[in-house]
Amino acid sequence: MFRFPRWKIASIVAMSLAAFLIIVPSFLSKATFKEVKDRLPKWIPFEQVVLGLDLQGGAHILLEVDQNDVIKTMVGNLRDDARRIVREENVRSLTGGYGVQGRTVQFRIADANDRNKIMPKLRQLGVGAVSALGGAGAPAIEISTADDGMIRMSVTEAGLTDKTRRAVEQGIEVIRKRVDALGTTEPNIQRQGNDRVLVQVPGLQDTGRLKELLGTTAKLEFRLVADPGYNPSDVDLLPQVDQPGALPVEKQVMVQGEDLTDSQPGFDQRTSEPVVNFKFNIRGGQRFGEVTAANVGKPFAIVLDNKVISAPRILGAITGGSGQISGRFTVEQANNLSILLRAGALPAKMNIVEERTVGPGLGQDSIDAGKLAAYVAGVLVVCYMLTTYGVFGVFANVALAIHIAMIFAALILLQATLTLPGIAGIVLTIGMAVDSNVLIYERIREESRAGRSIISALDAGFTRAFATIVDSQSTMMVAAVILYFLGTGPVRGFAVSLGLGILTTIVTAVTMTRMMIALWYRWRKPTTLPI
Amino acid sequence: MLRFRLAPDNVKFGFMRFRRVSYPFSAILSVVSVVLFLTVGLNFGIDFSGGTLFEVRAKQGQADLTGLRALGDKLGLGDVEVQAFGGGVDATMRVRLQPGGDAAQQAVVEKVRAVIVNDYEVRRVEVVGPRVSGELVQSGTLGVVLSIIAVLTYLWFRYEWPLAVAAVIATMHDLLLTVGFFAVTQLEFNLTSIAAILTIVGLSLNETVVVLDRIREIMRKYKKTPMPEIIDLSVNAVLSRTIMTSTTTLIALLALVFFGGHVIRSFSLAMMWGVIVAMYSSIFICSPVLIYLNPRTAEAEAEAVAPKGGKTKPAV
Predict the structure, then answer these.
(1) What is the enclosing helix (H) or strand (E) of A274?
(2) Does A206 touch chain B (CB under 8 A)?
(3) What whole-number percentage of chain B has pLDDT above 90?
(4) Four-point Cα dihedral B225, A457, A470, A406, nearest 10
(5) pLDDT value at residue B272
(6) Domain assignment of residue A193, yes or no
């Protein structure tokens, strides 16, 4: 019981020293830390505590793919495909137009032969999409026919889920490019669930700009403005950004944003108004050249997310493969637009469903408050243990100090995030860590009062209290584990520090205290217990 | 040697006598908690109710609370809750969930920021949309339910049924009273409050386990002593430990309440309440249950059923 072999003592001491060494870098300032880290070899774990956004300040934004927008796009595509097939197959018995309602496109083809002709092609539409799921899944569309010749094509739940998932995957890349353009350090962008993307940008102050960049789909289209006397079914009436009233714009798209290779903010040479300069790829350049050559003198519309930014008149064929967008921008708007065009369009509209932004001032205040609370709690608990248990209190306090060092060391090694509730968890463990010591000491006192010899009382105290310590700590562990799996962000930080605290308690409060008492016993050979 | 002690040694206090007071007392508190929870309800923060929270600091002088409150009407945001702290320089401002989905919440941020940006430093903004808050309610409820199930399973394996029942009653008691605490104080109930509740469940069980372990030990040692006496013996034996530990934990929590900053104050206060309730219930609620559900008879019954060789192990 009280025989501690040398190697055991050595390893316990080494472990404690390692814990203290690991936390040293966290006391350095950011600049010194970087300087030292660059000089050290890579294998040395020289890291600082990772602070959560609530402590270092920054923005946490959760984006969600707009399902209605996805449905709208999917149903729109379905209608266009159906129309194309009907045209290609020369079907003449189409009566009425194409109706769109919710997730369904419907149209009537009275002649049964015509129906049989197009049905296989329509069915083919749903196949490609689902193979992406990796094997035979549910079809992406559902087709039904009624006796009166009505064909209904609906987007299925599986098709929607699949499309949403892919929108998130592609969206992450676009979002990363956009956030990188802000020039912040180490943004964290990751998908959450099927339809969400989490964006965390540490240290960001101006969230307005970030949100503007994230909240814009940035679907750019160049379309001709319709001639007077247009056919309403070929035209969209689109609102204009810089003036009231809608502009009739042809549905047919000349060139799209995805045909851009570059865009930069700049100034118009004549008016010195902020503009965005862009370059087309070869296909886009050719197409733009052809259309402008054929439509000299007519206006064309630059459409961003279904709003007309501007509608300049085509003065001549534009064949250089580059162009300029002007639209009474401010410098910042021109900047943002060029970032958006460079990064490309989001595959679907995304909404901000959660936002948590902490300014750097508040973060620092929280760190200071947490530190102060930890110091006060530490000093009070240490004094209390000293006055109650004397020399045994010293042992408990040494164990407590190592315990706290170990929590931080574990946080650093795991690169787990320390949040404000996490600090609260550590402060709480300061109070609770001594619980194990108290359990043991009180038991020792009791056994000694019951007439046992010193060595036997010490022995009984440790053995009997141990079962209870494991029991009581495992109940706390249950709470910590559940919190970890259900909590997000700060609360998860609390669960981590609480859980680590419980694990290290067993080591420090039981093994280390026992070792210290054993060594002390050998050294002093006491005749009475000092507690 | 003279040393500072909160609980004197060799206490022989008849705790079990107090069950005639503590049971009705706790029953009333529990009922009041449930009634308050159902009638007054909890003061749900934006995590669970959705909406927008601003934390602002006046650039000059004190925060103008009436001015901030008036923003609700001025901007058409409905009721705006404003609270000052930090000596009146800081304030939090809570705007309820606006009709119109996620975009409407974002509009609130822009509108409010535009109005206050000249006079205030915006230190924190939190926006929780309707769907996210719904999910947080779900996962929070799930967390509490799961932890109760985990606790029950643990107790089922750990103890004979009368002791397990006693522990469950004590844990439920603490849970109810904690909910009651949130209802009475109207402290903001948010994600960290769920963390507080789960931690309190853990703490409460911790206290209970310490007492029950001792009861079981003494019960097996003194086979002839009547149950109330055994419980009194056990409670007295662990009393100094219970008081010591609760004191150190309370010290740590007090430090958090006074110095830890306002963001975690509601968490710290709830935890303090939890520690006190857990201490009380482990002594006055959990243990007396065993007078009514005598674990000895339960053990004897179990032994009668078991084959003769399968005697319970003697106490360690």
Answers:
(1) strand A274-280
(2) no
(3) 39
(4) 160
(5) 95
(6) no
- The predicted model gives A47-61 an average pLDDT of 89
- Strands in B263-313 per DSSP E: none
Quote the radius of gyration of chain A (alpha carbons, Å): 35
d(CA A22, CA A408): 8
Q: What's the pLDDT tens digit per position in B42-61?
A: 999 999 999 999 999 999 88
The position carrying tokens 């050998």 is A522
User: pTM of the full predicted structure?
Assistant: 0.82
Number of neighbouring beta carbons within 10 Å of residue A149: 17
Give residue A285's domain range. 220-352
CA–CA dist A369, A372 (Å, integer)? 5
Task: To the nearest 10°, report the CA torsion of A225, A226, A227, A228.
Answer: -120
Nearest-neighbour CA in chain B from A177: distance (Å): 23
Q: Is the pLDDT of residue A427 over 90?
A: no
Residue whose entry in the numeric block shows the structure tokens 């989490």 = A198
Q: What is the tally of structural domains in chain B?
A: 2
Distance from the Cα of A496 to chain B's closest Cα (Å) equals: 12
Mutate to test the interface with A, among B9, B48, B244 (most CBs of A within 10 A): B244
B102/A352 CB distance under 8 A: yes
| pLDDT at residue B308, as a whole number | 47
Do A46 and A40 touch, CB atoms closer than 8 A?
Answer: yes
What pLDDT score was predicted for residue A158?
85
For residue range A314-357, what is the model confidence (pLDDT) as tens digits?
Answer: 888 888 888 888 888 888 888 888 888 888 888 888 999 999 99
Q: Hunting for tokens 């793919």 — which residue is that?
A: A65
Q: Say which CATH number the domain at B59 has.
A: 3.30.70.3400
**A38: closest CA of chain B, how far (Å):** 34
The rounded distance, in Å, linking the Cα atoms of A106 and A143 is 10
Residues 421-450 of A with CB under 8 A from B: 421, 423-424, 427-428, 430-432, 434-435, 438-439, 442, 445-446, 449
C-beta of residue A153 within 8 angstroms of C-beta of residue A78 = yes
- The Cα–Cα gap between B281 and B26 comes to 9
Does B302 score more than 70 pLDDT? no
The pLDDT assigned to B8 comes to 67
**B212 and B290 share a domain?**
yes
**CB proximity list for A455: less than 8 A, separation 6 or greater:** A2, A521
The CATH number linked to A122 is 3.30.70
Across the beta sheet with A322-325, the strand order is A260-267, A274-280, A322-325
The residue behind tokens 């535009």 is: B114
B7 Cβ contact list (under 8 Å, min separation 6): B239, B240, B243, B244
Q: How far apart are CA B85 and CA B69, in angstroms?
A: 15
Tens-digit pLDDT profile for residues A356-369: 999 888 999 999 99
Give how many domains chain A has, as a whole number: 3
Q: What is the CATH number of the domain that holds A278?
A: 3.30.1360.200
Please give the ipTM for the structure prediction: 0.85
The first and second tokens of residue A257, run together, are: 């944003």
Query: Considering the domain boundaries, does residue A481 fall inside one?
Result: yes
Q: Identify the three-state secondary structure at position B192.
A: helix
Cβ <8 Å between A486 and B142: yes
Q: Do A239 and A292 form a contact (C-beta atoms < 8 A)?
A: no
Q: Which helix (H) or strand (E) holds B172?
A: helix B161-185
Q: Per residue in A434-480, pLDDT tens?
A: 888 888 998 898 888 888 888 899 989 898 888 888 887 887 888 88
C-alpha gyration radius of chain B: 25
- Give residues with Cβ within 8 angstroms of B163, minimum separation 6: B155, B212, B215, B216, B290, B295
Is the Cβ of A207 closer than 8 Å to some Cβ of chain B?
yes
Assigned token pair, A181: 């353009």
Is a pLDDT exceeding 90 seen at residue A401? yes
Q: C-alpha angle with apex B208: B204 to B214, nearest 5 degrees?
A: 155
Domain enclosing residue B242, as ranges: 15-43+133-301
